[in-house]
Amino acid sequence: MAFELPQLSYDYNALEPNIDARTMEIHHTKHHAGYTNNLNNAIKDSDLENQSIEEIIKNISKHSVAVRNNGGGFYNHKLFWEIMSPNGGGEPTGDLLNAIKRDFGSFTEFKELFSKAAATRFGSGWAWLVNQGGKLAVTSTPNQDNPLMDIAEVKGTPIIGLDVWEHAYYLKYQNKRPEYIDAFWNVVDWDHVAKRFV
Ligand code: MN3
After folding, report:
1. pTM
2. What is the distance between the alpha carbons of residues 179 and 198, in angstroms, rounded to a whole number?
3. CA 57 – ligand 1 centroid, Å
4. Residues 128-154: pLDDT tens digits?
5. Protein residues within 5 Å, CB atom, of ion ligand 1
6. How far is ligand 1, taken at its centre, from the CA of residue 126, in Å?
7. How many angstroms does the Cα of residue 121 sit away from the middle of ligand 1?
8. Which of 76, 59, 35 is nearest to 151 (CA)?
9. CB under 8 Å to 185, separation ≥6 — which residues?
10. pLDDT in tens, 169-183
11. Distance of alpha carbon 11 from alpha carbon 187, whole angstroms
C-alpha cells in the first residue's frame, strides 16, 4: 500500500503574510510530493509496504538512506502542515502550558530555546518540541531526520516541528531565517499541538 501526499486543511495563501502562498504551494506540491513518491519507490516490493510510517521511522537504522531521507521527509512535512493554522498564534493553555512552564520556566523561555535551536541548526534540518514520556524537550535534527528515529541523538515524540530548510522560507525571507522563525509563532495551532501532547 502506497503512502499518499496528505491534503492541507487550509489554502496555500491561508498563512499569509507569515508564510507566502508560493512557498506553500511549491513546498507541498513539489517537495512533499517528491518525498512521498521517492518513499514509495524506495519501499516498493519490500515488507515496509505493510508498515506505518511511524514503524518504519522507529527502526530507521535498519533501512536504506533513501527510506531514511524520504520517510523522514514524508512524516515531517505531514506533521508540519498539521501544527499550523490560519487561526494559529497566541499561547498554549491548560496542561500543555503547565508542562511548558514546568520544563522550560515560562512560555517566553520555551520560545527562545526553540527559536535558538531552529536558528542554529547548521544547514538543512528541523527544530522540534518533543514529549519524552510526559517531559518536554527541545531539540533539532539534520536533513529529514526526526526524534522518533532510533538514530536520533535526542529522542521523543514530536509535537511541534519547524522546517528550517531554505526551501521553507527563501522566497520570502532569503537568508533571514530568524525572521521566518519569528513569523512561525503566528501560525502555530496550539489546539492541535495540545492534542498531540495528550
Ligand atoms: Mn521542507
Report:
1. 0.97
2. 30
3. 17
4. 999 999 999 999 999 999 999 999 999
5. 31, 163, 165
6. 9
7. 14
8. 59
9. 89, 111
10. 999 999 999 999 999
11. 13
